[in-house]
Give the backbone structure.
Amino acid sequence: MNKRLAVTIAVASALSAAGCNPAPGDEDGAADQPTVVVWDSAGIEIVENHAPEHAAGEFWTLDSVPEFVLGGANTLGEPAHDSAQLVWDVVGLARLEDGRVAGLSSKGTQLLLFEPSGKLSRTIGRSGEGPGEFTRPEWLEYHPPDTLVVWDYFMTSIDRFDTAGTLLSERRGNHARLRELGIYGEDFAFPITEGYFFAAMMGREVDPEPTWSDCSPREFWTVRVVGEGQPVSQGGFSAWLPPEYVMIDSTYSAHSFGCPSHMAVGGHPPSIYIAARDRNEIYQFNLDGALSRIIRRSTGPVPITPRARRAMEQQREMVERELEARGRSMPPEGERSGGPPRDTHPPFFDVVVDSEGYLWVREWSESETGLPDRWSVFSPEGRWLGVVPVQWGGLVSCGFGRWKGYTSSCWVDRDFLVILQRDELDVERIEGYRIRRGG
C-alpha cells in the first residue's frame, strides 16, 4: 500500500520546555539566553537551537591539507606513477575500521581497497554476470567491521563481500513487487539499510504535498547528445517535474516523501533527514515513515552581499566556461537565471550523516566568498554543537540535492572526511582530511 505522508504540526497554546542548555552567566550572575530549547508538540520532539554549544575556535577543526590522496598521484603535486592506481567514475566511498579506504568504480566494475599510503591492496569483483561480478555497480554500503555491499544496475544483484573479497551472499530486487507499486528497477535511487531503499519516481504530481516538498514543474535548459565523441545539439528549455522520492521497506510497502531539496540517511538506528526548502529546519523520520523530530535554528539567513554576489557570478562563469569547452550548449545570456536573484543564501548546501550519527550541514558563512565554506555539526539528538570551517573550496556535494540526485562522493567518520575531488583535467582523486576533535 502506498502511504502518503501528510504531516501537520500542531502548535499548542502553551508549551512546556522539556529541556534546555543555558549559556554561561556573566560576571553579575545573569544568565544569557539558552543555546537550545527542547519541547514536545503532538508527539514530535522540537529541538530549537539558538546558538552552537561551542563557541568559535573551541570546536572541531578540519585540516586544510589532505592527509592522504588516493588515485590521483602517489605524492601530492606529482603525476601518478602507476596508471593502475588511478580511479574513475567512483560512485561510493567508505573508510574501513582498519584505516583502508574502499572506492566503488562504476565504469571500472570493481571495488577497490586502498591503504592510507595510497597503495592498492585489493580489488573485489569484475565485469560480468556471474556470482560476485558487476554489470554497472551504482552504490556501496559498508557494515562495520568487515562487510561491504555492492548494488548493481537495476538491482540485478546486491552482493555482500567481506573485506578479503569473499562473496558472502547475493540477492536481487523483487521487480514484480516493485511493478505493482508503479516502480521499476531503473527508479532505484539509493539504499538506506538492509531491505530498505529509496526509489525516484519521475513526472508525478504529489497531492497532498508535504511541508518540506516542492514538486511544482520547472523549466530546465536541456541538450541532446548525438553520440559519444560527437558534438551535442543546440539546447532549449523544457518543462520537467522533479522526482518524487519513495521509501521501499523490507515488506515492499511504499512511503512517499514528496520532492525534497536535501536528504540524508544514517544514524543508529537509521533515520531519514529532510531539509526544509527555505526554512532553517530539518525533519527527522523513523524507518516506518513517521516524523519523530524537527531540528530548528532561530538564526537568521546569511545575506548575499555585493562582494559575495560577484564571487558567485565568477564561480558560475568558470563552470560555464568548463562546460562549453567540453561542447556543452549553454542557454543564451540573460536567460540563465532561474528567477530574480536571492537576497540571502539558502540555509543548506549539503546534509550528511556521519558513521556515528552526527548530522553535518554544509552552509554559507559571512565570509563573502560566495561558496559554502563551513559545516555545522548536530548531535544525534539534534543539538547544534559547533561550526567546522572549511579551508578548501568548491561546490562538490556529498549528499542528496534536488538538482544533483543522490551521490556518495564522501564519507565522514570520527577521524576523517573523505571526499572525491577532480582536477582541471577531470582526473578523479580521493582525498582524506583529518578531523581534529578539540573542544
